[in-house]
Automatic annotation (TrEMBL):
Pfam families: ECH_1 (PF00378). InterPro entries: ClpP/crotonase-like_dom_sf, Enoyl-CoA_hyd/isom_CS, Enoyl-CoA_hydra/iso, Enoyl-CoA_hydra_C. It comes from Herbaspirillum rhizosphaerae. It comes from the Bacteria. Gene3D superfamilies: 2-enoyl-CoA Hydratase, Chain A, domain 1, Lyase 2-enoyl-coa Hydratase, Chain A, domain 2. This is Enoyl-CoA hydratase-related protein. Belongs to the enoyl-CoA hydratase/isomerase family.
Length: 257
């Protein structure tokens, strides 16, 4: 039986694919747990410098699996949400950049997954929809945090209240996506931006991502994050390498130390 989540490695890049096309890669409990396992392994993989999250068969992720949702059991619902939050934290707190490669539907929890990533590349076939209000729910899996960072306050409310479907062109225009390409270009375009990320200093990326998950924040808090993070980086081997590379007019070779 084929795995519902596959991980392929290309140099320092890991491509994580949701692979349950008959369910349009819905976030079933099995899919969620397989993604958790994949990202936990990647978090410990020092050879991996960037991750791409995509779907199979013209679908990114159709959203949560409504058929398996507990009904009338608040405790069971909270336990399920806690597992979903575990996946969200693994993506947002991963010490390396995560690129979403969106082809087809990214609805509900699928949209939450895409926007939890650091960079979103979508094809002209992409369709984004918050979807939660269609079934009487509020947005979850961090969408109330990630969506306002990408679009205006009015658009946040429109997308959440009406569950409007947004195509690739509008996604780029609104800021939901960072890059729009054809379906044929999606794989290579995601690899290209991930390759750029692999050249970044790992320690700097990790501390920057950790700081960005706390935004927006008061200036005093931001300066505290800078004080803690930058003082560590000034003492790193990567900073020494970066400084000498700058003076010697060559590309730095960062090692994450």
């Amino acid at each position: 039986m084929e795995a519902i989540v596959t991980v392929e490695h290309t140099d320092a890049i890991a491509w994580v694919s949701m692979n349950q096309p008959e369910r349009r890669n819905a976030l079933t409990p099995e899919m969620r747990d397989a993604l958790i396992d994949a990202f936990e392994r990647l978090a410990e993989n020092a050879d991996c410098r960037a991750v791409i999250l995509g779907g199979s068969d013209r679908s990114f992720c159709a959203g949560g699996d409504l058929s398996s949702l507990p009904s009338g059991d608040t405790l069971a619902s909270r336990k399920r949400m806690a597992q979903a939050h575990r996946l969200l934290r693994l993506i947002t707190e991963l010490s390396k950049p995560v690129v979403a490669a969106v082809d087809g539907t990214a609805f509900g929890a699928g949209m939450s997954l895409a926007l939890a990533c650091d960079y979103v590349v979508c094809s002209e076939r992409a369709r984004f929809c918050t979807a939660f209000s269609n079934v009487g729910l509020m947005a979850d899996m961090g969408l109330l945090w990630s969506l306002p960072q990408r679009v205006s306050a009015g658009q946040v409310r429109r997308l959440l209240f009406t569950s409007a479907v947004v195509d690739g062109d509008e996604a780029l225009r609104l800021g939901l996506a960072d890059q729009l390409v054809t379906s044929e270009e999606l794989h290579q375009s995601a690899l290209d931006i991930a390759t750029q990320f692999t050249g970044a200093p790992p320690l700097s990326v990790a501390l920057t991502k950790a700081a960005l998950t706390r935004m927006p924040a008061p200036l005093q808090n931001v300066m505290g994050l800078e004080l803690d993070g930058q003082s560590q980086l000034f003492s790193s081997a990567d900073f020494t390498e970066g400084r000498y590379a700058f003076l010697e007019k060559r590309r730095p070779q960062f090692q994450g130390r």
